[in-house]
Amino acid sequence: MSATRMQLLSARNVRLFNRGRSELSAGVRSPTSPALWSPSPGRALSGLSATRRGLPKEKMPENGASARAKVLTLDTMNPAVKKVEYAVRGPIVQRAVELERELSEGIKKPFTEVIKANIGDAHAMGQQPITFFRQVLALCSYPELLNDSTFPEDSKSRARRILQSCGGNSMGSYSASQGIDAVRQDVARYIERRDGGVPCDPDDVYLTTGASDGIVTMLKLLVCGKGATRTGVMISIPQYPLYSAALAELDAVQINYYLNEEKCWSLDISELQRALDEARRHCNPRALCIINPGNPTGQVQSRQCIEDVIRFAAQERLFLMADEVYQDNVYADGCRFHSFKKVLFEMGPEYSDTVELASFHSTSKCYMGECGFRGGYMEIINMDEEVRAQLSKLVSVRLCPPVPGQALMDLVVNPPQPGEPSHEKFIKQYLAWLFFGLMELKAVWRNSSRIAC
Questions:
Q1: Which helix (H) or strand (E) covers residue 285, if one does?
Q2: How open is the CA angle 254-260-263, to the nearest 5 degrees?
Q3: In the prediction, which pLDDT does 101 show?
Q4: CB 264 within 8 A of CB 451
Q5: What pLDDT does 249 receive?
Q6: What's the CA gap between 233 and 240, in Å, rounded?
Q7: I want to staple 36 with a disulfide (CB 3.0 to 4.6 A). Which of 29, 123, 179, 245 is the partner?
Q8: Is the backbone of residue 53 left (phi > 0), alpha (psi -120 to 50) or beta?
Q9: Minimal CA–CA distance to 324: which of 220, 197, 190, 215?
């Protein structure tokens, strides 16, 4: 080292340098190593403690190694995620799991079992799967079973059709991001039958990971703005917590409109107007979410109510989101499910050509109750073509929905037909589910007239 450079080091720093050198000699490198011990001001200063160098003091764990502060902490994580609450799987459910474990360990309680009413998990509560669905899915998962004579021919033919629609004839391959083309065609035909012939274009159908995936995807497209321009989304109270959780995560404004408990949880347009007018003072309301049949309230909206909601959405320029996953769960006398899409088109071009609508269905509820397969679809109406391109891009990010869920969706919308080998058993199982639903309804409601229709 030159004399000039040596003069830059104070006597105190030289002493510190030598002390640091002797301390490090017990470490990895030898003190004679030129790479480690070439004296320089930087090396000398490295002997100073973190505190003396003005750096945060690192915590020293018991083993003597220096612990580095976490990159991701509660203070540095996405603040929107901390606002998310999801009671369906929250603290009450966690406590229920603890109670179940304690009961299994023989700990005495003033009860003998825990009944979980937090989520509509039909099979977990004892509902039996539909044989035809499981047979076809088994054949698709393990095609060698197609040679097994114990499977009926209609289940085999259905499995072959699904496999032929899969890449490499395997359900283990990716599908198109929008979903398997043949399944979307079957969904479109199902919607047309359900809605009395109202046309459905398969290109408007997106297969999803349960209805939840479609709902969150649409909310992602809708949410924008900051401050007073931040997107507001109208949701019913009581609600299914997916909506409040998704809005919190997306940092959107939750606009509550309240169902009328005194009138069997009915929906009043005056309440929608009240909620909208108040929200416009601090955000930009852009979407109206409707759950029909209701969850958790169970009401079934009348056709007149649906017409009123559509007119309200058209007048106030709101994007309509219709959550219709419980459309088969209608039991009370005089009640009937009306899809928003059907009513929209029957109201004429003034509405059917202008009102933007996304509707959702799922394999998780109703007589199938196949929550774990995560199958579903959404249909979009009157979406801007440039936005549709963005939607296609967004769904492509997650590659594709689970292919077994897509296959199950195909079976739900296209069950065994009269004359096919599996039809009789399918009908018996469906009627058994319907009877079970009626008994549950009677036990819970006591009087079916309490359900708004």
A1: strand 284-291
A2: 160
A3: 87
A4: yes
A5: 86
A6: 14
A7: 29
A8: alpha
A9: 215
Cα–Cα distance between 243 and 232 in angstroms, integer?
Answer: 12
Helix (H, G, I), strand (E, B) or coil at 359: strand
What gap in Å lies between CA 267 and CA 261, rounded to an integer?
Answer: 9
- Contacts with 131 (C-beta within 8 Å, 6 or more apart), sequence order: 422, 425, 426, 429
pLDDT for res 18 = 45
Residues in the chain: 453
pLDDT for res 43: 45
Can you tell me the distance from the alpha carbon of 361 to that of 339, in angstroms, rounded to the nearest whole number? 11
Instruction: Give the chain's residues under pLDDT 70.
Output: 1-66, 76-90, 118-119, 436-453
Backbone angles phi, psi at 289, to 5 degrees: -100, 130
Give φ, ψ of 47 to 5 degrees: -75, -15
Residues 6+ apart with CB under 8 A from 434: 331, 367
Q: DSSP character for 29?
A: S
Main-chain dihedrals φ then ψ at residue 292, nearest 5 degrees: -145, 120
**CA R_g for the chain:** 31
Q: Which two tokens stand for residue 416?
A: 């065994």
Q: What is the DSSP string of 213-249?
A: HHHHHHHHHH----GGGSEEEEEEES--THHHHHHHH
Helix axes 403-413, 153-164, angle to 10 degrees: 130
Cα 82 versus chain centre, distance:
17
- What percentage of the chain's residues is helix, strand, coil (to nearest 5)? 50, 10, 40
Specify the pLDDT at position 246.
Answer: 87
Residue 452: phi, psi to the nearest 5? Answer: -75, 130
Kind and range of the H or E element at 323? strand 319-323
Which token pair is 99? 């109670």
Are the beta carbons of 17 and 9 closer than 8 angstroms? yes
Q: Which residue type, as a one-letter code, is found at position 276?
A: L
pLDDT given at position 372: 80
205: enclosing H helix or E strand: strand 205-208
Cα–Cα distance measured from residue 206 to residue 181, given in angstroms and rounded to the nearest whole number: 10
